[in-house]
Amino acid sequence: MQEHGERRGFLNSPSRMGDESAYSTPMPIRQLSEPMINQIAAGEVIERPASVVKELVENALDAGAARIEIVTAGGGLNLIRVTDDGSGIPEKELPLAIARHCTSKLADDIHDIRSLGFRGEALPSIGSVARLSIRSRTANGDSAAEIGIEGGRVSAVKPAAANRGTTVEVRDLFFATPARLKFMKGERAESSATSDVIKRIAIAFPAVRFTLAGSDRSTLELPATDDSAEGRLRRVAQVMGADFPANAITIDAVRDGVHLAGHVSIPSFSRANALQQYAYVNGRPVRDKLIAGAIRGAFADALPRDRHAVTVLFLTLDPAIVDVNVHPAKADVRFRDPGLVRGLIVGAIREALANAGIRAATSGAAGMMAAFRPGAASYAHAGPANGHRSYEAAYRASGFAGFDPARSPQRPLDMGLEGGGFPDTEPGNGGFGENDQAAFDAGPLHSADARAGQDEAAETLLGMALGAARAQVHENYIVAQTRDSLVIVDQHAAHERLVYEALKNALHARAVPSQMLLLPEIVDLPEEDAERLALHAETLARFGLAVERFGPGAVAVRETPSMLGETNVQQLVRDLADEIADNDTVDTLKERLDRIAATMACHGSVRSGRLLKPEEMNALLRQMEATPGSGTCNHGRPTYIELKLADIERLFGRR
Ligand code: ADP
Ligand code: MG
């Protein structure tokens, strides 16, 4: 209340009244001065040092440079210098380069833009708010020339010494507009914004070498690769780290003349924000809502709302069907047919994810390996055990109870990882003897005579992607073995995914079968939730959930999807109401249906804690292999991790 009162007081204050009277005697209309016009343009084009770097690097790229060196000081506020080996600017054109609306890039057709720049605005804008100098030499020029502009004041062209190419130097950015200077975030933030700009643009120009250095930063060097698919991927790895390509799938699709290429992370390699999503339209880095939304849509049923895929996507299309002249900073685009572009992105990513089949992030396994590395606390008391060779000694010293050297004379813990199995199992069988398995397997056992015919089957299972189930531990983890690895499956996560995929399939084929409840279940809810559910009753019915209004603030549930079995109806209905509230306005219908399926699947899956028989475990593994997308659960977590035998051996110092 107090605050309100003060506000109102301010609005009616005498000083404000005074302002009004000032407005009532306006100045006559007059043309703004050239420097003033440039400063106004600079307000949009040059937001911070990183925007200067972006404009200068774009110019160097437009000039066909193969090497671009960027140096900054004081976060770019004191100095930005960009040197390129491009075409250079002829001496007589230097004054034009810094004049407003002068460009060598745009002929007559604004619909046919093939360069990064086209507005003829960057250099005069920078020159109006900073001290700018350009030194340049063309391939057939005998010498270099230089021009300067400080806060809009142009100096005469004079001869200079330089190699072919152009060096643009910007000092004291915003000295002429102190108000803008106050908005700068500090050296570190501005430096890192500049690095981001370079990285973003460098991904689109793999054949160009970039170096970014300065007293205010650690040097970033991106050696040139080439324009081939591999070259592009190498540049991506330089910028984003080698683990991205290792955890990404390739996208390559065309629809109606629009080409989409690039890489997206597998769902288990996701991030907490969308900063690692790079998008390019005809080689121009863009930040586009439509593209971001399409990526979100494509991953809608693989990632929870608060996780984001890592992506590098290049759209190539006729310049005539995309408008890049939307904003002076040229990072926004408008597509003539947004539906086509969205459909292409969503379709291509979904298909690629499905074709990639089951694949878990290697980072999960890597983390696990790291956690297991000797030197971890549990080994500390073992004294001499920190060397790689003295494991046996270490086990003895630590009094490891389970190890009986008499039973396994060569190596401790030789658990059949080389196909040998436990001592009483023949080599090549690849499995535990039934009696030995009893100690590990919480599920019921086969009878001993059933075993004879199984050797062959076991051999086949070992060749499958997820191998042969060996045991269930902690009532939720299936331990399986392939020929060259150990696989651990989170049975709850895996089953949830399978149920989800089944629900989706059923949904898109026909209505999901439902079962009638003996007594309708009444769920009390906030009125708007009840209303929302009622609005979606028809959709829910397709999923086998029959809901109807039951007076104010309640719904009655008469039928539930059969595949859920007995389920907590109250919780399910509340979760669905939340789900609809969250996603109603943004997602397309199909995505929404899939999300509802995901929520249902979560409720219907085998909870951890359920004991599985060996056949059930193997059946689950086979189902996972056959189901696209089953490498991650509906929340984007991996459903299994695979440890390569080679890595395990390394852990034990055997390699
Ligand atoms: P735009 O890039 O939109 O044309 P700019 O103000 O950025 O506008 O640059 C003006 C002109 O100066 C460009 O059209 C180009 O001819 C020339 N120019 C600027 N930087 C370079 C450079 N590094 N190498 C060669 N020419 C350049
Ligand atoms: Mg430019």
UniProtKB/TrEMBL annotation:
Which NCBIfam families does the record associate with it?
mutl (TIGR00585), PRK00095.2-4 (NF000953)
Q: Mind telling me which SMART domains this protein's record contains? A: DNA_mis_repair, MutL_C
Q: Give residue ranges for domain DNA mismatch repair protein S5.
A: 236-354
Its gene?
mutL
Species name for this entry? Mesorhizobium ventifaucium
Describe the task this protein carries out: This protein is involved in the repair of mismatches in DNA. It is required for dam-dependent methyl-directed DNA mismatch repair. May act as a 'molecular matchmaker', a protein that promotes the formation of a stable complex between two or more DNA-binding proteins in an ATP-dependent manner without itself being part of a final effector complex.
Give me the ranges of the annotated region Disordered: 1-25
- InterPro entries according to UniProt: DNA_mismatch_repair_CS, DNA_mismatch_repair_MutL, DNA_mismatch_S5_2-like, HATPase_C_sf, MutL/Mlh/PMS, MutL/Mlh/Pms-like, MutL_C, MutL_C_dimsub
Q: Which HAMAP family match?
A: DNA_mis_repair
Protein name per its UniProtKB record: DNA mismatch repair protein MutL
Q: Which domain of life is it from?
A: Bacteria
Q: Which PROSITE patterns match?
A: DNA_MISMATCH_REPAIR_1 (PS00058)
Q: Which SUPFAM superfamilies match?
A: ATPase domain of HSP90 chaperone/DNA topoisomerase II/histidine kinase (SSF55874), DNA mismatch repair protein MutL (SSF118116), Ribosomal protein S5 domain 2-like (SSF54211)
MutL C-terminal dimerisation domain boundaries: 469-612
Record key words, sorted: DNA damage, DNA repair
Q: Which family is it part of? A: Belongs to the DNA mismatch repair MutL/HexB family.
